[in-house]
């Protein structure tokens, strides 16, 4: 049992160490403007936003309940959506790519940098998922081209 636990820990540690950092762009603008631009950039691609998670609000609302005192974000939202065309292509290549759908783009404003907004996405594994990275990179480029 110890060997199995150790093996699982090594796999988890190795997987985490191999994960790429997110793709991000930092802009000097308001959170509201960047969020509005992101919303429009997603819709302009003909995509439907499934959900907007207000992660920053949740973390702020629950910080006392979990014994925290630090404010992590002034604002932080995560936009979830999918592309039928791109998803079908990457899942035809490998049905296990279902694990990545829906795709997410986050927008965050940190307390230490209130005049900047970070917009980004998880960097998906290279290969067939490069199509998803390109889609998300394009949306972010459109959202920050102001």
Q: How is this fold's topology laid out?
A:
Blueprint: H1 2-18, E1 23-27, H2 31-44, E2 48-53, H3 55-62, E3 75-82, H4 84-93, E4 103-109, E5 117-121, H5 130-143
Antiparallel strand pairs: 1-5, 2-3, 3-4, 4-5
Helix pairs in contact: 2-5
Structural description of this entry:
By secondary structure, the protein is an alpha+beta fold. The chain has a single domain (20-143), classed as TT1751-like domain (TATA-Binding Protein), CATH 3.30.310. Helix content is 43%, strand content 21%. The chain has 5 helices and 5 strands, in the order H-E-H-E-H-E-H-E-E-H. Helix 2 crosses helix 5. The longest helix has 17 residues, at 2-18. It is globular and about 45 Å long. 21% of the residues are buried.
CATH class label: Alpha Beta
What structural class should be given to the helix and strand makeup? alpha+beta
Q: Give the biggest beta sheet.
A: 5 strands, antiparallel
Our count of helices gives 5
Strand order of the largest sheet: 1-5-4-3-2
Number of domains: 1
> What general form does the structure show?
globular
N- and C-termini, Cα separation = 56 Å
Mean pLDDT: 91
> SSE string, helix = H, strand = E?
HEHEHEHEEH
CATH topology: TATA-Binding Protein
Radius of gyration (Å): 18 Å
Q: Which range best describes the helical content: under 10%, 10-25%, 25-40%, 40-55%, 55-70% or over 70%? A: 40-55%
List keywords for this structure.
TATA-Binding Protein, disordered N terminus, 146 residues, alpha+beta, 5 strands, 43% helix, globular, five-stranded antiparallel sheet
